[in-house]
Design brief:
single chain; alpha/beta; Arc Repressor Mutant, subunit A; D-Maltodextrin-Binding Protein, domain 2; 3 domains; six-stranded mixed beta sheet; two-stranded antiparallel ribbon; 10 helices; 22% strand; LysR_subst-bd; WH-like_DNA-bd_sf; transcription regulation; transcription; DNA-binding transcriptional LysR family regulator
């Protein structure tokens, strides 16, 4: 049984005539009739009977229709999947990252992607999760990796990993016990993402904790980049909040929060949008890197 035989069978069933089906497929009617006869011989049952000047399906023919349609659809899907891989020889990835990813995840993912797909250009941008979410929602980026919570209007959000946040200080005395929000309100805080303070996911969590406890967090220093906050804290100019995985060689002591505080990473795409093969492959690599 060959795929074209199923295609000819479905065309004949649709048009009710071998000649009409052959005309629709731009082929000779005897060739179509011969292929359908061979299909019937292989199946051991007739699929059509003569009806006046046309043809009608037999019971066997009616049973075959959904199976033939499914086989042809799966064959087309297989062709499309291979075609998508072939298109990865060109194009551009448009992907957004939250700010901290530029110091940990971004370089490794881009390096692996370029090694595998050297002809594909990469645009990996973003300073903050709120900015990335806006860019994906507006169509300026195809997809992104963000920290929750974000405004999810118009977006599909798929959480993927959770990492614990710690209180960071150059003074070991300040990290001898877990940090509570009441003590945090009295601490000399250095906070990053100054431009996105109202929407930054980490600040949103801290602000909600403080409001629940009836206190207010007032940073003594605000900067744009997480690494700048770490460097200032390492010099003893204040304490900050961050991920241990991003400390690198900075000599900062750590204390967990009580209750624990986490950053949840999530991949976002525009709702019901179909990703380009390049961006989908890039996102798969990013997800493996997180795992």
């Amino acid at each position: 049984m060959r795929l074209e035989q199923l295609e000819y069978f479905l065309a004949a069933a649709e048009h009710g005539s071998f000649s009409a089906a052959a005309n629709a497929l731009l082929m000779a009617q005897p060739s179509m009739s011969e292929q359908i006869r061979r299909l019937e011989a292989e199946l051991g049952v007739p699929l059509f009977v003569r009806a006046g000047r046309g043809i009608e399906l037999t019971d066997a023919g009616r049973l075959l229709i959904p199976h033939a349609e499914r086989v042809l659809a799966e064959a087309q899907e297989a062709i499309e999947s291979v075609r998508e891989v072939r298109t990865l020889v060109s194009g551009t990835v448009a992907f957004g990252f939250f700010g901290g990813a530029h110091h940990s995840l971004l370089v490794g993912v881009v390096a692996k992607f370029r090694a595998k797909y050297p002809e594909v250009r990469v645009r990996a941008i973003g300073q903050n999760s709120a900015e990335v979410a806006d860019a994906v929602r507006d169509g300026h980026l195809e997809a992104g990796l963000v920290i929750l919570p974000i405004e999810d209007r118009g977006l599909d959000v798929r959480p993927t990993l959770r990492e614990e946040l710690f209180y960071l200080s150059a003074d070991p005395e300040r990290t001898r016990e877990p940090m509570t929000v009441d003590r945090l309100a009295q601490a000399p805080l250095i906070l990053y993402d100054a431009r996105w303070a109202a929407q930054d996911p980490t600040r949103v969590q801290l602000r909600e904790m403080a409001q629940t406890s009836g206190v207010r967090l007032e940073p003594v220093i605000e900067v744009e980049y997480m690494t700048a906050a770490f460097d200032l804290a390492a010099r003893g100019l204040g304490d900050t909040v961050g991920l241990v995985s991003m400390l690198r060689a900075r000599k900062l002591h750590t204390a967990p929060f009580d209750p624990p505080l986490y950053e949840t990473y999530a991949f976002i795409t525009r709702r019901n949008a179909r990703l380009s093969p390049s961006t989908r492959a890039f996102m798969e690599m990013a997800e493996k890197a997180l795992g």
